[in-house]
Amino acid sequence: MNKRDLVQEFFTRTGVPSEAAAERAVQAFIDIIVSSVATGEEVRIGGLGVFDRVYRKARVAQDPNTGEAVDVPGKWVMRFRPGKRAKDAVNK
Predict the structure, then answer these.
(1) Distance CA 55, CA 78 (A)
(2) Which of 64, 65, 76, 80 has its CA 20 to 30 A from that of 86?
(3) Which residue, among 30, 6, 27, 25, has the nearest Cα to 78 in the 3D structure?
(4) What is the pLDDT of residue 42?
(5) The whole model's pTM is what?
(6) CA 39 → CA 56, 59, 77, distances in Å?
(7) Can you say whether residue 52 is alpha, beta or left, with left for phi > 0 and alpha for psi between -120 and 50 degrees?
(8) Residue 17 in 3-state DSSP?
């Protein structure tokens, strides 16, 4: 499922007045999660899981083509941890 499919499903299930309104709602949902996590806030969605950010430490990796050591700088990354309900649904 891609974003377009998600918008269509949201439109079908919720009965919002138009597909454009469904697209705005989905985009707003995504924007809220991304901007909240970017500022260090944790986003918990019951039944789905938790979005947060963690710091990935700097490390030395290896270039697979040449075998040379490459310095990979540390950075913040978004992490998703599924909740119990989501885990159970996937493992049925």
Answers:
(1) 9
(2) 76
(3) 30
(4) 97
(5) 0.84
(6) 16, 24, 12
(7) beta
(8) coil
Kindly give the pairing relationship between strand 75-82 and strand 69-72: unpaired
Residue 49 has what DSSP assignment? E
Average pLDDT, the chain: 96
The 3-state DSSP class for residue 75 equals strand
Task: Tell me which residues of the chain have a pLDDT lower than 70.
Answer: none
Question: How high is the pLDDT of residue 84?
Answer: 95
> How far, in Å, CA of 71 to CA of 66, rounded?
14
pLDDT at 1: 95
Query: Which amino acid appears at position 82 of this protein?
Result: P
Distance CA 52, CA 92 (A): 26
* Chain centroid, CA 85 distance in Å: 17
Residue among 78, 81, 74 nearest 59 (CA): 74
Paired tokens of 76? 């913040």
